[in-house]
């Protein structure tokens, strides 16, 4: 069963475990922060794609190494007394905008899907799903890039970004909506774009952490229909 959760309801109610929930941005105020996400790195706000309310990472005025407004306060809401450790770890990745979903505390398996549209960016037009976000700021990442036409599973660990699996010749044209889907199933991590599987990676380590949206550098990208199905 699919549950459509409005932004107002998300402000008060978390998605139940083992349920499918979709986060949209209808009714949110353009220019404001989305109530269902907390931006930690980069510039994020509710935007418009025509009449459609969307969530945007806006790198048009991008500066390398900029934490989002009130990042320490947001980190404390997630990790309490461990917030300084989390921020210290996250500062290693300040080249990469990151916004964490407020509603899912521990994603251990299942699927995460989001619609995205690359609008502009000369360095990058990257859209990603961050998962297994740890209290030390490390995480895993499935990302598509409209300028490179590829889909990559990355590992962000100890200040380094390493490629786990790379798929080339993946059509990701700018100016169009695409569906990015991550599946954590048993001991495998799968990655799909527009219903086509490009990533299939054996994975023996437990996945257990927060989740969010990711981008890179000067990317200006719209996101919508963030959907989580927990195992």
Set out the fold topology.
Elements: E1 2-5, H1 7-10, E2 20-23, E3 37-41, E4 44-49, E5 52-58, H2 71-79, H3 83-90, E6 98-101, E7 110-120, E8 126-133, E9 139-145, E10 150-157, E11 160-167, E12 177-185, E13 188-193, E14 196-202, E15 210-214, E16 220-230
Parallel strand pairs: 1-2
Antiparallel strand pairs: 2-16, 3-6, 4-5, 5-16, 6-15, 7-12, 7-16, 8-9, 8-15, 9-10, 10-11, 12-13, 13-14
Helix pairs in contact: 2-3
- Subunit arrangement of the protein: single chain
Order of helices and strands: EHEEEEHHEEEEEEEEEEE
- The geometry reads as globular
Distance between the termini: 14 Å
Q: What share of the residues does DSSP label as strand, in percent?
A: over 45%
Helix/sheet category: mainly beta
Main pleated sheet: 9 strands, mixed
Q: Count of helices?
A: 3
Helicity range: under 10%
Radius of gyration: 16 Å
Number-wise, the strands total 16
Outline the low-pLDDT stretches: 1-19
- Global mean pLDDT: 91
Your description of this structure?
By secondary structure, the chain is mainly β. The chain has 3 helices and 16 strands. Helix 2 crosses helix 3. The longest helix has 9 residues. The two termini are 14 Å apart.
Identify the notable features of this structure and list them briefly:
231 residues, mainly beta, 9-stranded mixed beta sheet, 7-stranded antiparallel beta sheet, 16 strands
